Structure formats: C-alpha cells, structure tokens
Amino acid sequence: MPFLNRIQRWADERPHDTAVVIAGRRLSWLEFRDSAAALVAHAKSVTALCEANSVDFASKFAAAVAGGRQCAVLDPAWPAQLQEDIRRRVEASALPAAVSPDDELADGVPEGTFLIGLTSGTTSVPKAFTRSRRSWQSSFDASIGFFGLRQDDVTLAPGPLAASLNLYALAECLYAGSEFQTLESFDVGDVHAAITHDRVTRLVLVPTMLRMLSERGLTGCVDASGVRTIICAGSKLDARTLEAARRWAPNATIFEYYGASELSFVSGAGLPARQLAVHGGTGIGRPFPGVDVRILDDAGLPLPDGAAGNICVRSPMVSNGYLWGDDGQALKSIAGWYTVGDQGYLADGELHILGRRADMILTAGRNVYPHEVELALSAVPGVSAAVAAGMPDDLRGQRVVAGVVPSHGAVTATQLRAGLEELLARDKRPLQYYLLAELPVTDRGKVSRSLLLDWIKSRDPRVRGLGG
C-alpha cells in the first residue's frame, strides 16, 4: 500500500488533526479522506493530472490512484501542445486495470502500477516510467526512518507538486500521518511567514531555494530555530549554501541525499544541528537502508575503492521501467544492477558522486566532471555560487569554463585560480572565468550548464568575462 489505507486510519484515529495545508486552505484528515473518497467514482482507470498546487490537486491525486487506478502527474507549466501529447501517450501506453464507480478510497495490490512518472521536459517529450505501490511503500519506510519524520512534524515543501520531490513529500506525509504544507507558488516571503506562524519543523526543497531562504532569512532576522529537519535534493549542497543554512537554522539536521526518480533513494548523510561542515568534498553519504551500491564498469565488472565508474544499485525501491522514451541509457541494467548513468566512486563505504556521464567534459583526453569543479569553486572565499561547463575547443575538444556569482564585492580570475590550487587538480581547473549576475536556472530552480553556455555565446548581459 502506498498511502490510501493510511489516510483511512488517520481519519478514524485523528479526524480533526490537520492533514494538508495548501495555498492557505486547510483540510483535516476527515475532510481530506471524504473529499478524496467523493472523487473516486469519477476517477478513470488512467488519469493525467495537470493542475497547480491546491488541496483539490491532493484530493484528485489520492482518488486517481485508488484501487487499480494509475495516475500521471503533468507539469502545468509545460506548453499546452506538450501536455496534450503526454495525455495521448499516457492513454495509449498504460495498461489499465478494471475499476468501478463503487470502488472505495483504498490501495490496490502492492505489485500493481499506480504512478506514471515523467521526467521534466520543456522542448522534448519527457520519458515516462512506472512505479508499483510496493516500491513506494519501501521508499516511505526507508525515508521516514532515515530522515526521522514524526507525526508531530509540520513539513513544508514549497515547490510545485508536479515535481517528484514535492509529490513524494506529500505522499510520504500522508503515509506517516504527518501534516504537509505547500504554497500556491514558491515565494521567499510566504515561506518565511509559514515558518514563523505555522510551526513548520521540516523543509523539503532544492538547493537554490534553501540558499535564498537562508540568506534572506538571515538578513531579515527570520527565526528558523524551530526547524529541526532540512532535506535537500537535486544536487550536493555547495559550501556557501550549507554555511548560510547552518547559521539560519541552527537547530536543524541538514540532510542531503543522492537518488533519481527511477531509482528512488540511493545514499544520504545528515549534518547534525550546530555541527559545521567540511567543504569541497564530493561525498554524499552511505547507502540508504535496504539499498546495495556498487561501482561497475560498462562491462559490469566491479571497480576498486576510489575508482570512478557507473553508480549501480539493487533495491526494492527501483521503478518498473519505461512506458516510453527508453533509449537504453536512461535506466540501464548492468549485470542485474541498475544505473541512470551517474558516475562516482566509493571510498570507505561513502559514495562520492561526480555527475552524469552526459555532463562530463572531455578536455585534452582527460575526463572532468562539472559537479566537482563547482563544489571546489564554491569553497573559494568570495564565491557565492558557481557553475561549470565544457565549451567547444579546436585544440582540446572541450575546455572547462566556469561562471561565478560573487558573495560580496568583486572577484578576479587570479583569486579564483589561487583559491583552487589546494582544492582541485590542475587539469580540472577552468581555463576561463565569467562573472554572473545570477545563476542560470531552469523554471524548476535547477542550475543549467547549457544555459550558461547559451549566455556566453549570446553575450547575455547577465554574464561577462573575468580578467586576471
């Protein structure tokens, strides 16, 4: 069972406790159960749900996975033509189960598919993969224990529910019987107000959001001492974000983890309250409970400690595979181990992530991962944030370039080069530096290396070359 049987339980045991608060509207467990149950009779065997954040979204999602039903959650920010294309593909590709208007708000069989996940996309058609109820229950049991989710927690995930990070956080809280909150759309002031007035104890968000909340919270004296858990996903936290978050929320354990929509959780680590972090490393913790991790080469042979290769996992949380878009690279099985193409290595039981093979920069015959360059640059004094990419080069094939957002005042290329001397091998250091007015990010708040290259190529006013 993913979470519907649990909703029935919480509605019986704690009918008037708060279940969800979305865009300022509150539903108790009884109200949420009844609103979702009333929609089951109208829910099709396969639903393509495309709505902005609201309590109606939450109720419709619950109804859309009742019994043997399946649901695909579409991003309302996608162009209308893309949305329509996805709906047609979902209806044509999914294998519907028998459903009845008389079905109750209850979970279907554990092995059955209930969720059709979609990778994010704007110009190309997203890939679609499927998940069983059992895989999500395994994920819930692992994440609730690892992150220490309690029923008296109030979780705020301020991003779009169409994003897998936030959709999972909603379902996890429904499963655990813990209050879930989100906003109509992300706004720093609204998040700060929720933390101040709504007893928020737990944040689930991406690094760019945490950076803004922490820095502006410190400037505006927003009290985050009541936050006891921060869970960050999407990329490893850079030094400046971690430093700001630690100062702003001194009582929080700050978790970062590695995972993928197709794999679920792989590894993670928590920085206990008031403990300072060691900056500049690529370590992303130890494997999650129930997850086995190996580093394999392309032939499926295990690599020794410290040797980089494919990060491969075995876990009950892995998705079933793809409905469409399987190019043989996105989710691969190597000798019975699964990988999404991320590269990394193991050292003393800790997983170090280097990044996607597709992001790898091949320069003068050497492999350089932008993620490693960015982490090192973010630890240099005077750097607020950094993004690295590979630019075409007639001599080297590609050359490493980097854009930096200064933390205060000006920063020079000479300062950056000097700061990297003890942090990064010479052949991984950027050959060109650019000063950024802001980070190049997607509409979902993720840093985009391709957008950095577009800015440089088009001489965008938000980027300018840095001299020595």
List keywords for this structure.
12 helices; GMP Synthetase, Chain A, domain 3; 468 residues; Rossmann fold; alpha/beta; nine-stranded mixed sheet; five-stranded mixed sheet; globular; 2 domains
Strand line-up of the largest beta sheet: 2-1-8-7-9-10-11-12-13
CATH superfamily of the largest domain: ANL, N-terminal domain
- Specify the structural class: alpha/beta
CATH architecture type of the largest domain: 3-Layer(aba) Sandwich
CATH topology of the largest domain: Rossmann fold
What profile does the largest beta sheet have? 9 strands, mixed
Quickly count the helices.
12
Beta-strand content estimate: 25-35%
How would you describe the shape? globular
Q: What is the residue-mean pLDDT, rounded to a whole number?
A: 91
Calculate Rg over CA atoms: 22 Å
Strand elements, count: 26
CATH level 1 class label of the largest domain = Alpha Beta
- Taking the alpha carbons of the first and last residues, their distance comes to 59 Å
Low-confidence stretches: none
Q: Can you tell me the number of structural domains?
A: 2
Helix content: 25-40%
Characterize the structure shown:
The protein has 468 residues and is of the alpha/beta class. The protein folds into two domains: 4-353, Rossmann fold (3-Layer(aba) Sandwich); 360-465, GMP Synthetase, Chain A, domain 3. Helix content is 29%, strand content 28%. It has helices at residues 4-13, 29-40, 55-64, 80-93, 133-147, 164-176, 188-197, 207-219, 239-248, 370-378, 413-420, 449-458, and strands spanning 18-22, 25-28, 46-49, 70-73, 113-118, 128-132, 154-156, 179-182, 202-205, 229-232, 253-260, 264-271, 286-287, 292-296, 309-314, 321-324, 332-334, 337-339, 342-347, 350-356, 361-363, 366-368, 383-393, 397-406, 432-436, 463-465. The strands form six sheets. The chain has a nine-stranded mixed β-sheet, with helices on both faces. It has a five-stranded mixed β-sheet with strand order 3-4-5-6-16, with helices on both faces. Helix 8 (207-219) packs across helix 9 (239-248). The longest helix has 15 residues, at 133-147. The radius of gyration is 22 Å and the shape is globular. It starts with a helix and ends with a strand.
